[in-house]
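Feature request disguised as a bug report, sorry. It would help if multi-protein outputs had a clear separator. Right now it looks like this:
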Amino acid sequence: MNQVRTLGLVLKSFNYQESDKLYLLYTKDLGKVLARAYSARQVKNLISGHLEPYLLNDLLLKEHDNRYTVLDAQTADRYFTTNLDQVAKLHLVTELIEHFTELYEPDERLFDALRFANKLVVQENHWQLSFLEVLAKILSALGIAPSTIKCVVSGQKIQEGDIAHWSPLAGGLVLQLQTPNDKGLNLEPIKNTDSLKLLNLLAQDTEVAYRVKVSSDVLNESQQLLINYIQMAVQTKMRALPFCDTF
């Protein structure tokens, strides 16, 4: 049996047997891990209070035959929000990592992005832009970033004056002239192409993105485009899984 101490956050938890809980964790050193906490549902248990969503924990895990048990958990960063919009967005981040990563494949970029997202709830300035940055970084690290420069159907780069649409199903930008039969793509009109430029900038150079003046309309549209894309990606992924793997 090996003991591992690592930092980690809870992606999901559910009750197991009479008094235990199973935790799906994303850790710095092990990646995604399923770990059991014995007696976590008992009133006097000291671990379960730390293992709450969006809390960074210093974890002590015991490994035996690729099965992990939580021996100890101490909260390293305690950030808390009662803002429903923020909670929903943080949940979107954890869903991405839950569904698009494999067990025991650590990725420091994903861990750092998840930890950064955890801190956003106490950030007053640039919250929305920082949230977009987190999503862009996670999508890039997972290799599922949407196309924001080229049409996913034709490969043609977007030009000034082009009529652009967004297709979460197809994977991003779609130029109208390239899609005469677009009924199956569920196209959404893009009101301002600056929204695409912002998403591309966040994926390439975040420092510049924070220096550029961005209107609230562009921020809102950029956010909605990414959220719609992620929701479609998660739904598609879940539909492809066997029933028993969705728990």
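(second protein starts here, but nothing in the output says so)
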Amino acid sequence: MPNTYRYFLFTVFAISWVTGIAFFIFSNWITVEGDFGPEKHPLQYPILQLHGASAFFMMMLFGALLAAHMPVSWRLNRMRNIGLTLVTLVSVQVITAYFLYYLSNESIREVISYIHLAAGGCLPFVLFTHIAVGIRKRRTNQSKLKPISASLKTTDKPAKAA
């Protein structure tokens, strides 16, 4: 995966995760005193807007990963379990976000918001594990390969043209 794409992915992911957690905290535990009693904090809505914007970018980046990264890894039989866990968590995020946006039944929305929170809260840890295991496996595989220069004998000389 190109470094530019990787850095953009991680930046958007971090923004999405931090704003999601911040929105949850603001939504559930932070209120301000208004003219008519306690009301939502004024930062809650801009945080949700930033969360939604970053989520759209995440969906695009996720689509790119599905098209480029996953097929290669799947054919090579690399890290399928944790990869599928990541795909499942992101898919749950997309589906529950859709429901949170369009459902009006408050009791169902509350359940879905906790599912969205649980899946989103787990994502950084599963992603970190995916990356760490991938790096470890790559290093292990590279150390098993002999360097080309070590496999050549010093007595082997290229044939001279006549």
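Even a blank line would do. Unrelated, but nice: Residues 3-151 form a domain with the Fumarate Reductase Cytochrome B subunit fold (CATH 1.20.950).
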